[in-house]
Amino acid sequence: MGESKKHVGVLGLGRMGTALAGALLGAGHDVSVWNRSPHKAGPLLDRGARLAATPAEAASAGVVLSCLSTYDTQWPALEAAALSGRTLVNLTSGTPEQARDVSKWAASEGVGYVDGVIMAVPQGIGTPAAQILYSGSEPTFAAQREVLEVLGAPVFLGEDAGLAALYDLALLGMMWSTMAGYLHALALVGTEGVTPEQFEPLASAWHSAVGGFLPGIGSQVASGDYATEVSSLDINAAGLGLLVETSRAQGIGTAVPAVLRELFDRAVAAGHGSHAIASVIEEIR
């Protein structure tokens, strides 16, 4: 493939950290690993990884991937790693402000910094299906792209170090909302004996159709023009009322649709009843 072998340090050997280190080993890179519980490194050591006794020893690699459980866990490891003059790729999940704080710290310490979020499960790491979003220093990202491409498909979002975390939470919010809606739907049809296997084909087809609405909604939000000849907000708010009423009558909880009904009703009360669903963003804002 023409790739040069690099020495990479990995801090954190949870499921994701282990997958990252494994992908790097599989690509022929020299990998040092550190974890608070050293026994987790066993399978990686069998594949040729080096066990670092301290974060600083792992950081001797020059390029360090940090994938720890929280920022509270990560800070002591970073401060102990003596990273000055090295590159840090931060793959620990957190908020945009936490990523920016690490970016400021890295700049003060002379550390090249890239923040990243992994939009994949550990089993997907090392495949093109594993999309990883990055933000921070573009020169640092470009210099380490060869390593980052081993982990998955890299997408650079910009030099604001908080952008990757912002995108991550926005996308996960969509996922969680979709899953909650689907679980509510399964509970609702399940009250009449409909199984998930029976319902899923219609649900998947409907989900794909709804995905087709996203570009139009985005265009309306960008323009601020919420005029519609398709489906006005007041009709959808009324439909949510029916969903809440039917859920209650069928004996299941209403938590999922009730919060949406309250939001849509607020938007109608604010004068958006004849507008498109996209107008709800004015209440969210």
Detailed description of the structure:
The chain is of the alpha/beta class and 285 residues long. It is 53% helix and 13% strand. It has 13 helices and 8 strands. Strands 3-2-1-4-5-6-7-8 form an 8-stranded mixed sheet, sandwiched between helices. Helix 11 runs antiparallel to helix 12 (255-272). The radius of gyration is 23 Å and the shape is elongated.
Give a quick rundown of the structure.
With about 280 residues, the chain is of the alpha/beta class. The protein has 13 helices and eight strands. An eight-stranded mixed sheet has the order 3-2-1-4-5-6-7-8, sandwiched between helices.
Name some characteristics of this structure.
285 residues; alpha/beta; 53% helix; elongated
Which helices and strands appear, and what pairs or packs with what?
Layout (H helix, E strand, L loop, with lengths): L6 E5 L3 H12 L3 E5 L7 H5 L3 E2 L3 H5 L3 E4 L4 H10 L6 E4 L5 H14 L2 E8 L11 E6 L1 H6 L1 H7 L1 E4 L6 H28 L5 H16 L2 H10 L9 H17 L5 H18 L8 H4 L1
Parallel strand pairs: 1-2, 1-4, 2-3, 4-5, 5-6, 7-8
Antiparallel strand pairs: 6-7
Helix pairs in contact: 11-12
